[in-house]
Amino acid sequence: MIPGMIEIGGHPVGDGYPVYIIAEIGINHNGDINIAKKLIDAAVLAGCDAVKFQKRTIEVVYTPEELAKPRENPFGPTNGDLKRGLEFIHDQYTALDKHCREKGIAWFASCWDEGAVDFIEKFNPPCYKIASASSTDDNLLKYHRKCGKPLILSTGMADLPVIEHAIEVLGKDDLIVLHCTSTYPCKVEELNLKGIITLKEKFPEIPIGYSGHEVGLSTSLAAVSLGACAIERHITLDRAMWGSDQAASIEPQGFMRLVRDIRNVEVAMGDGYIKIYDSEAPIISKLRRVSW
After folding, report:
1. What is the pTM of this model?
2. Which CATH superfamily includes the segment(s) 5-287?
3. pLDDT of 131
4. With a cut of 70, which residues of the chain have pLDDT below it?
5. Which of 35, 55, 88, 279 has its CA 20 to 30 A from that of 118?
């Protein structure tokens, strides 16, 4: 394995390799398997490398008091109704797994508890994502490592000491770290994209990427130009749809532009060696008065 590079399902991820692009479906399917399939199709059409879901064991992640709180939603009058309504069960994940395989795109999930890891592990995902909210859960971090899969760690809601501790618990092997700010949607002035540079300098042996929750595409392209080797953005069919993450997501046409522009930025970055291109030769003869 080349230092600073890991493989996810056969895709090398790290400096010098194509940016690994993840379409975060998360809970934007609103509990509807058909919406989830449409989001997968949109990610495939855009040229993404993977889609990502979220998995929770509701009674473990949330307290009874939290689940009982009033919260009007499409599934009922309580927060518990909402949380349960958004969770896919085994048969639904089996259908999603089949759909992704047929479409030729990788999928994985961020698991919020140990039982969720066991659930997703049955589908043999190429890696796991550790959500920003879980970065301080040492037991959950260690539990992920038992699966022997590459891990992707988001750093929202964390300062450098928290990030350093999480990396100490996880170890640096087979790990990607994503710079992130966990506000939905995030203000541009709080993206702190230079944090990508800070993380690359602090952890040169770890591939560093970016997970964004802002509105628009330009800042994700800026992250690529700063050296992000992986980009994760939420995908939605319509930003006006019901759901807490929709407004911080990108619609299918926008995702197509994002992937296209990331690939263009990769090519445009070049190798840094300054030279005269053959295409410039006729311009030289036409415009330059003095040559040597």
Report:
1. 0.96
2. Aldolase class I (3.20.20.70)
3. 98
4. 1-3
5. 35
What's the confidence (pLDDT) of residue 3?
65
pLDDT at 292: 78
What's the start-to-end Cα distance of the chain, in Å?
46
What are the extents of the domains in the chain? 5-287
* 127/22 Cα distance (integer angstroms): 12
User: DSSP characters for the chain?
Assistant: --TTEEEETTEEEETTSPPEEEEEEETTTTT-HHHHHHHHHHHHHHT-SEEEEEE--HHHHS-HHHHHSEEEETTEEEHHHHHHHT---HHHHHHHHHHHHHHT-EEEEEESSHHHHHHHHTT--S-EEE-GGGTT-HHHHHHHHTTT--EEEE-TT--HHHHHHHHHHH-STTEEEEEE---SSBPGGG--TTHHHHHHHH-TTS-EEEEE-BSSSHHHHHHHHTT-SEEEEEB-S-TTSSSTTGGGSB-HHHHHHHHHHHHHHHHHH--S-----GGGHHHHHHH-S---
